[in-house]
Design brief:
The protein is mainly alpha-helical. The protein has one domain. The chain contains 4 helices and no strands. Helix 2 packs antiparallel against helix 3 and helix 2 packs parallel to helix 4. The relative contact order is 0.15.
């Protein structure tokens, strides 16, 4: 009886940790990579403050899309595809802004 109770308590304690794991690890990693690209662009002077703000706004928009997709507890294939497309678009914007002629002094 004690062993059964212990097993139930352990399972109950582990449940919140499982619930907190993300359903979109690929999206999370890509978001982190894109944030690093933006940060590197700021440090090198490739991005102006205005460009940085615009790119950060785009990153926040993708993050909101991800949160909305995860809200019901299940991220569908269609939602994943939509997120990937949004991240592709954001990646292209980062590249474009980093490689245009606008620069600032490196930080």
């Amino acid at each position: 009886m004690k062993l059964k109770l212990l097993a139930i308590l352990v399972a109950a304690a582990a449940l919140p940790a499982v619930a907190q794991t993300t359903q979109t690890p690929v999206v999370d990693q890509r978001q982190a990579n894109q944030e690093k690209r933006i940060e590197q662009g700021v440090k090198s002077g490739q991005l102006t403050p205005k460009e940085t703000a615009k790119l950060e706004h785009g990153q926040a928009k993708v993050e909101k899309m991800k949160e909305k997709a995860e809200a019901d507890g299940k991220v569908t294939a269609k939602e994943r595809k939509k997120l990937a497309k949004a991240q592709d678009k954001q990646s292209k914007k980062i590249h474009k802004e980093k490689h245009d002629k606008q620069t600032t002094a490196p930080k």
